[in-house]
């Protein structure tokens, strides 16, 4: 099911019609065959059914949860249209190849043009993390989760950064949030490590809220 929202697919259904069909698409995504699941996932991404995907993140079927995480990421990446998504992808490719200055110019420009675009901020946070700038990365991740409270990757990054800064209670809170949003994502190791460090520093689990 490797496709993106920006793929040349058929036009999305009208908003009122889509609303009436979301339940049917979710059912086909959960119980349909491969073709039905693919079509349902495309339609749900196109109408940005983030609420439905959020529910599926906690599904006991890990494959469904993984599909939901993929779909949410596609929704977030494409919030500002095709051109913006292409620019963000270009910046991500530059970052992956180690061209941090060039990628940062793109990320900062997108953040300036679209100040409420969480995914552009998250890419900048990723760059800051790669530079070991944990304090600034932490601040940017806080902005991401303010804009997208279910951004499990940002919560996870916030926990790791907080651990690097010795802010154990904050690390535990962020890790708990990440795990509660997406239990099967393999994030429990970060939570356990944060709780262990917090305990070593005299911070009991019951005192962390």
Show the helix and strand layout.
Elements: H1 15-31, H2 34-46, H3 50-56, H4 62-77, H5 82-96, H6 100-113, H7 118-130, H8 134-147, H9 152-164, H10 168-181, H11 188-200
Helix pairs in contact: 1-2, 2-4, 3-4, 5-6, 6-7, 7-8, 8-9, 9-10, 9-11, 10-11
Key features?
209 residues; mainly alpha; Leucine-rich Repeat Variant; Serine Threonine Protein Phosphatase 5, Tetratricopeptide repeat; 3 domains; 71% helix
Order of helices and strands: HHHHHHHHHHH
Q: List segments where confidence is low: pLDDT < 50 over at least 5 consecutive residues.
A: none
Main sheet properties: none
CATH class of the largest domain: Mainly Alpha
Calculate Rg over CA atoms: 18 Å
What separation lies between the terminal Cα atoms?
39 Å
Instruction: Briefly note the CATH topology name of the largest domain.
Output: Serine Threonine Protein Phosphatase 5, Tetratricopeptide repeat
Structural class: mainly alpha
Structure, described:
71% of the residues lie in helices and 0% in strands. The chain has 209 residues and is mostly helical. The protein folds into three domains: 15-77, Leucine-rich Repeat Variant, CATH 1.25.10; 79-128; 132-209, Alpha Horseshoe (Serine Threonine Protein Phosphatase 5, Tetratricopeptide repeat), CATH 1.25.40. Helix 9 packs antiparallel against helix 10 (168-181) and helix 10 runs antiparallel to helix 11. The N and C termini lie far apart (39 Å).
């Amino acid at each position: 099911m490797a496709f993106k929202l920006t793929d040349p697919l058929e036009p999305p259904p009208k908003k009122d019609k889509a609303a009436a069909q979301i339940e049917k698409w979710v059912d086909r995504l959960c119980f349909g065959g491969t073709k039905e699941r693919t079509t349902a996932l495309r339609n749900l991404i196109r109408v940005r059914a983030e609420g439905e995907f959020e529910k599926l993140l906690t599904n006991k079927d890990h494959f469904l949860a993984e599909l939901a995480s993929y779909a949410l990421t596609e929704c977030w990446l494409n919030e500002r249209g095709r051109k913006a998504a292409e620019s963000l992808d270009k910046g991500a490719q530059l970052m992956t190849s180690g061209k941090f200055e060039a990628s940062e110019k793109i990320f900062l420009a997108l953040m300036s043009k679209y100040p409420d675009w969480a995914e552009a901020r998250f890419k900048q946070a990723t760059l800051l993390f790669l530079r070991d700038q944990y304090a600034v990365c932490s601040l940017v991740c806080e902005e991401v989760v303010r804009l997208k409270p279910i951004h499990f990757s940002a919560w996870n990054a916030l926990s790791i950064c907080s651990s690097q800064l010795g802010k154990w209670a904050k690390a535990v809170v962020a890790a708990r949030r990440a795990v509660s949003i997406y239990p099967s994502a393999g994030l429990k190791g970060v939570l356990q490590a944060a709780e262990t460090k917090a305990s070593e520093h005299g911070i009991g689990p019951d005192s962390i809220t």
